[in-house]
């Protein structure tokens, strides 16, 4: 399980990056909650030296029009080297969020499990349709925070998104109530693993089974393309409890720290 979690590193196609043996720094799109992220850290040089280098290489990634790009979101993963958190704190980092790393087998997902039965009034659509793809991006920006990407920019990346969904590599599913997009979530299939990410529900639609419907749809997609294990990193106080009720077990926690770039 730890190996599967360690292998989960998301780098959007074409995203600017800075890399060394000890780290991978990525500039995500503006619509993401934390555009500048260190998504992987390995042992090597002293961590204080590594943090200094990352800050220097992150400065060109800051956009004054995107306030959230002024910090590096540094993820301390299950396989993080000793001394990383201490070095981040010494450089002025502040706690951001903690997620549970959870997993469950997929083969039996949905069989006689009430927590995986989708709500009957929720309509689900996948992101191999441009309008649905745009709704997924907008929902993520609205709920998590970020600068929404305009439709013209999405048109350039949509063909790759559609091909991925239809080819079994994953994508985003959007939930609609009365024709209005109210929730979404993504899945990436990597060999036997299905990595679930980005589950959101707008506040006014919570408590109506939207998250459950989005979860069930992603697990069904993963089962259909032959994945064996579903992995998700759920926020401790929100999605974590729902995922546990849906048969997921926790294997540890990961934390992110916000490090001012300056």
Automatic annotation (TrEMBL):
SUPFAM superfamilies (alphabetical): Acyl-CoA N-acyltransferases (Nat)
Ranges of residues in domain N-acetyltransferase: 122-262
Xref: InterPro entries: Acyl_CoA_acyltransferase, GNAT_dom
Record protein name field: GNAT family N-acetyltransferase
Species: Nocardioides aromaticivorans
Taxonomic superkingdom: Bacteria
């Amino acid at each position: 399980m730890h190996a599967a979690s360690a292998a989960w590193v998301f780098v959007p196609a074409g995203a600017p990056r800075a890399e060394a043996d000890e780290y991978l720094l990525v500039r995500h799109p503006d619509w993401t909650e934390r555009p500048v992220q260190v998504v992987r850290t390995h042992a090597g040089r002293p961590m204080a030296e590594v943090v200094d280098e990352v800050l220097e290489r992150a400065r060109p990634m800051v956009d004054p029009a995107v306030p959230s790009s002024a910090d590096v979101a540094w993820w301390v993963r299950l396989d993080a080297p000793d001394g990383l958190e201490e070095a981040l704190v010494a450089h002025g980092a502040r706690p951001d969020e903690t997620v549970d790393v959870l997993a469950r087998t997929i083969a039996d997902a949905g069989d006689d499990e009430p927590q995986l039965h989708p709500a009957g009034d929720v309509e689900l659509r996948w992101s191999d349709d441009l309008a649905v793809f745009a709704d997924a991006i907008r929902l993520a920006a609205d709920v998590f925070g970020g600068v929404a990407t305009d439709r013209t920019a999405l048109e350039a990346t949509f063909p790759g998104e559609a091909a991925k969904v239809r080819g079994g590599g994953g994508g985003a599913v959007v939930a609609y109530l009365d024709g209005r997009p109210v929730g979404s979530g993504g899945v990436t299939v990597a060999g036997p693993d299905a990595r679930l990410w980005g589950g959101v529900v707008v506040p006014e639609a919570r408590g109506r089974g939207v998250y459950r419907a989005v979860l069930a749809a992603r697990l069904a997609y993963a089962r259909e393309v032959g994945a064996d294990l579903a992995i998700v990193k759920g926020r401790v106080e929100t999605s974590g409890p729902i995922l546990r009720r849906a048969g997921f077990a926790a294997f540890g926690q990961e934390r992110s720290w916000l490090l001012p770039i300056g």
